Amino acid sequence: MVSRALAGEPQRDYFIYVPQSRPASRISVLVHGISENACEQTLRFVAESEKHGTILIAPLFRRSVFGQYQQLIDGQSGIRADRALFDIIGAIRAELGLSEQRFDLFGFSGGGQFVHRFAFVHPRSVRSCVLVAPGWYTFPDNARAYPQGLRGLPLDEPSFDEDAVGAIPFHVVVGDQDVVRDGTLRSSPGMDRRQGRTRLERAVRWHRAMRKWGAHQNSSLTILGGLGHCFAEAVSDHDLPRLTFELWDNS
Questions:
Q1: Whole-angstrom Cα distance, residue 194 to residue 209?
Q2: Residue 126 sits in which domain range?
Q3: Alpha-carbon distance 133 to 115, whole Å?
Q4: Contact, 172 vs 199, CB < 8 A?
Q5: What gap in Å lies between CA 42 and CA 49, rounded to an integer?
Q6: Cβ atoms of residues 62 and 88 within 8 Å
Q7: Contact 175, 221 (CB under 8 A)
Q8: Using one digit for the tens of pLDDT, what is the confidence trace for 219-248?
Q9: CA pair distance 237, 214, nearest whole angstrom
Q10: Is 23 a residue whose pLDDT tops 90?
Q11: How far is CA 81 from the centre of its chain?
Q12: How far apart are CA 182 and CA 47, in angstroms?
């Protein structure tokens, strides 16, 4: 595993792991939550990377640089985390001579927020998504403003590409004990009413909403027994890296 940074601004740090056991052309992106544990995530996924021959890329979206990276664009600075990710992937493709344009996405907590919003905005770049316990979601609702709905989505294209989004399997994973309402969970009376009061309830509602909207038939919801909101426990107790690759590969 190597830690790198692209030249220029904004600051774009990332971790990369290239498997040693076989040639690799597939890219899988790991997106951290507010703890900024990109290094830990990469290390935890190394064994599965070797098994599957997949290059791991884990951007480090420092809050001091990217602010509300979970929403793709920071409301104060205007810096876009989604474009920073494209810069990183573009540099790696050029360096390694990769031609595959689509990649898999994994995100835990705030990273899960980033992942599904990225897929909504850039669907033709995404093969499959695994979202683990996001705090809240962008629902497939054209009447509600972004980031809670699709109206005003920060698109690079003229319009929301429903067909391309509908071709992406969205796999939601959450613990059955992820029900604590602490300071890291965004909440308000309106959001609680629309999305639910806990990460567990919100995951169930979003998955149902996506299936009703017309999401890919392989989209899934996995509820892990005995798990709260902890990446390390999801890895140790439920082998989250293995589960993630299974979901990606079954897409």
A1: 11
A2: 2-249
A3: 12
A4: no
A5: 9
A6: no
A7: no
A8: 999 999 999 999 999 999 999 999 999 999
A9: 33
A10: no
A11: 12
A12: 33
For tokens 């959450």, name the residue.
Answer: 174
Q: What is the mean pLDDT of the chain?
A: 97
Q: How far is the C-alpha of 134 from the C-alpha of 137, rounded, in Å?
A: 7
**For position 191, which CATH number holds?**
3.40.50.1820
Sort residue 11 into left (φ over 0), alpha (ψ -120 to 50) or beta.
beta
Per-residue model confidence as pLDDT tens digits over 86-133: 999 999 999 999 999 999 999 999 999 999 999 999 999 999 999 999
Bridge partners, 5 (sequence order)? 13
- Residue 244 structure tokens: 């993630």
Class of residue 181 by CB neighbours under 10 A (exposed 0-12, middle 13-18, buried 19+)? exposed
pLDDT one-digit tens code per residue, 139-155: 999 999 999 999 999 99
Question: 183 pLDDT exceeds 90?
Answer: no
Strands 54-60, 12-17: pairing is: antiparallel
Question: What is the tally of structural domains in the chain?
Answer: 1
Tokens representing residue 200 in the block: 């567990």
Per residue, the 3-state secondary structure of the chain, as one string, reads CEEEEECCCCCEEEEEECCCCCCCCEEEEEECCCCCCHHHHHHHHHHHHHHHCEEEEEEECCHHHHCCHHHCECCCCCCEHHHHHHHHHHHHHHHHCCCCCCEEEEEECHHHHHHHHHHHHCHHHEEEEEEECCCCCCCCCCCCECCCCCECCCCCCCCCCHHHHHCCCEEEEEECCCCCCCCCCCCCHHHHHHHCCCHHHHHHHHHHHHHHHCCCCCCEEEEECCCCCCHHHHHHHHCHHHHHHHHHHCC
pLDDT confidence tier of residue 156, bands split at 50, 70 and 90: confident
